[in-house]
Amino acid sequence: AGTKLSHVTDLCSTACTARVIRTMATKRQLLCTFTVAVCLSTATFAQDDDVDPIPVPSGNYLLFEPFTSKQEFDNRWVLSDAKKDGAEDEIAKYDGEWAIEEAQENGLPGDLGLSLKSKAKHHGVSVRLDRPFEFRNAPFVMQYDIKFQDGQECGGAYVKLLSHSDSLDLEELQDKTPYTIMFGPDKCGDTDKIHFIFRHKNPKTGEFEEKHSKRTAAASFINDHKTHVYTLIISPDNTYEILVDQEVQTSGSLLSDEDFTPPVNPPREIDDPDDSKPSDWDEREKIPDPDATKPDDWDEDAPAKIPDPDATKPDDWNDDEPEYVDDPDASKPSDWDEEEDGEWEAPQIPNPKCQDTGCGPWSPPMINNPAFKGKWRAPMIDNPNYKGKWKPRRIPNPDFFEDQNPFKMTSIGAIGLELWSMSNNILFDNFLVTADCSVASQVAEDSWRKKAAKEGGSITGGMVDSLLDAAQERPWLWGFYALALVLPFVLLAACCCRVKSDDVGEAKKTDEPQPDDPHKDDEEKEEKEEGKEEEKEEESKGEESEGKEQQEEADDKSERREGDENKEDNDEPKDLQDPPSEEKAIEADEEEEVEGEAEEEAPVRKSPRKRKARKET
Predict the structure, then answer these.
(1) Beta carbons of 174 and 454 less than 8 angstroms apart
(2) DSSP string, 462-528
(3) How is the chain split among helix, strand and coil, in percent rounded to 5?
(4) Does residue 454 contact residue 108 with C-beta atoms inside 8 Å?
(5) Are 417 and 427 in contact (CB under 8 A)?
(6) Partner of 439 for a Cys bridge, out of 59, 73, 445, 489, CB 3.0 to 4.6 A?
């Protein structure tokens, strides 16, 4: 997980570094890069999870075989060395070949399975459970994967759950080896079903009898060349379920007479085998009327068809011409041998002279005989002696017993594949025997689900399933998924908002022609309007400053005139004149300050190009 998180960090860091190096990259490009990085990383998580094809059961089990290696198979499994009873010596031996190998197509890397390799041969192989399964208070769960890589012409792929006993010899596995349950698909001719058979022990006699499920699902998955997981669940309440690919195909009860044949429990009463029908027992519901008689005008010998008495021969009918003549275009074949083939005769064709009229001897057409009545039979009436359908009397069944818990079957010590098939390359995998349904479900999700995603036709569905499976195992992945979903909306919002691009600077460097930018035209219009407003402000300020200067000049002239008048009118000496008043000094200082401020406030006009450069800076 740390390595994968580092992978995401590297991708994001690369995107950010590229943003720093390419100073002209936009925010939208950065968001796109980061979104792609997150999506690729999450897909990488799922793909990395798919690389590990071997599931690890999370609970207790009695057998789990994922076929990790040929050596493990040789150490645990036992090949049969027996011969089939009643078969010819050439085909009696269980000498069919097995191999540990990957799937031929669309398999997960490193995922091995047990492959049946021989056609028209008996195959036998088995393995013991870690400990015998005892039918007590926990459900029995059997599950395994099958892939008919070349389809199935005729044969089965079912599993026999062998009964536990001290005398069980796996090397002598054959068709008569005692088993407790047989489960799996079978197809040959009209047979196309998923077997579920269990052997029930008669509590009175101790003998075993096979109980065949009537509600068998069709094995329609055989010829699609894909992996399917088959699951059988038998619960302590005597109910059962058959699942294919984690979906229930059929279910029922071990105690139901409608589900199994013969039923687990025999009937309480049976027909008396010694009872027989009495000789005078009349089962006829209807009988011919004994008082009925044949009418006098009833002619049983009258024919059904007679010549039409009103028909006449046509005037152009040619009695001398035959109806068929020899084909004039036919010729005797060159290889015709009259000694061996006889005298050659030309084939017959319809006489062309008879196309418009008839030829040969004329006879009137046949019509229905109005006097025909057929053979006379007496009408049927109710039988006065009718006693109904005879049935033997019912007696108590001497073999009756009642087993209310057939779930408690013979304990299971091993599983075996005892098969005959006309097709090869049948791949078995992930045999599981457990008492926990959740373990079977978890193994199916961890293994079969990934195989189905790899083999399935929908790439989108497989990718989504892989992402969900990865998040179930690592909840922190939900954060990446949420980020990947939110980023596109952020990107859309960024595209809708007006973001100033730096492509202008790049174009200036490369001198490449650029398309007109509508945002650029808007900016130029705004700049022109701002320039006009600034010019108006500068003109108004200039007029104010000019007015102040004219007023100051007028004041200076008036002061000079007053000073000259004072000099002419007053001949007093300078030391007797009044000193300048403080008010006039203050006014002079204020006028100097106003002139300085006006000079500072006078704006410096700038061209639009300089203003634009200032904004870009």
Answers:
(1) no
(2) HHHHHHHHHHHH-TTHHHHHHHHHHHHHHHHHHHHS----SHHHHHHHHT------HHHHHHHHHHH
(3) 35, 25, 40
(4) yes
(5) no
(6) 59
Q: Does residue 365 contact residue 307 with C-beta atoms inside 8 Å?
A: yes
CB 13 within 8 A of CB 41: no
* Residue 141: both structure tokens together: 């769960």
Q: Classify 452 as helix, strand or coil.
A: helix
Q: Which residues contact 13 (CB under 8 A, 6 or more apart)?
A: none
Phi, psi (rounded to 5 degrees) for 481: -60, -45
Task: Indicate if the alpha-carbon torsion angle 419, 425, 431, 437 is positive or negative.
Answer: negative
User: Residues 354-410: pLDDT tens digits?
Assistant: 877 788 888 888 999 988 888 999 999 999 999 999 999 999 999 999 999 999 999
pLDDT band at 574 (very low <50, low <70, confident <90, very high): very low
| Alpha carbons 196 and 217: distance in angstroms, whole number | 10
| Exposure b/e, 427-454, CB count within 10 A at least 16 = b | bbbbbbbbbbbebbebbbbbbbbbbbbb
Distance of CA 491 to the CA centre of its chain: 32
- The token pair that represents 495 in the structure block: 């595209």
Distance CA 557, CA 613 (A): 47
| Opening angle at CA 145, ends 140 and 148, nearest 5 | 140
**Cα separation, 100 vs 117, whole angstroms:** 10
| 8 A C-beta contact, residue 238 and residue 405 | yes
Mean per-residue pLDDT, 249-257: 93
Q: What is the pLDDT of residues 465-480, one digit of tens each?
A: 556 656 665 777 778 7
Q: Over the stretch 538-566, which tens digit does the pLDDT of each residue have? A: 666 565 565 666 666 666 666 666 555 55
pLDDT value at residue 56: 84
Give the model's pLDDT for residue 527.
Answer: 62
What is the residue-averaged pLDDT of the chain?
Answer: 78
- Given the structure tokens 């319809």, which residue do they identify? 350
Query: pTM for this one?
Result: 0.57
Q: What's residue 461's pLDDT?
A: 43
pLDDT of 40-80, one tens digit each?
A: 555 544 444 444 567 788 889 999 999 999 999 999 999 99
Helix (H) or strand (E) holding 112: strand 112-116
Q: What is the DSSP letter of 359?
A: B
58 contact partners, CB below 8 Å, separation of at least 6: 438, 439, 442
Average pLDDT over residues 89-101: 87
CA distance 477 to 1: 10
**3-class DSSP state of 348:** strand
Confidence band, pLDDT 50/70/90 cuts, at residue 5: very low
The pLDDT score that the predictor gives to residue 341 is 84
pLDDT exceeds cutoff 70 at 283: yes
Helix (H) or strand (E) holding 385: none
CA–CA gap between residue 519 and residue 588 (Å, rounded): 54
Q: What is the DSSP string of 197-260?
A: EEEEE-TTT--EEEEEES-PPP-TTGGG--EEEEEEEE-TTSEEEEEETTEEEEEEETT-TTTE
CA gap 113, 102 in Å, rounded: 6
Q: Are 80 and 97 in contact (CB under 8 A)?
A: no
Q: Is the pLDDT of residue 452 over 60?
A: yes
Spell out the SS3 assignment of 134-156.
CCCCCCEEEEEEEEECCCCCCEE
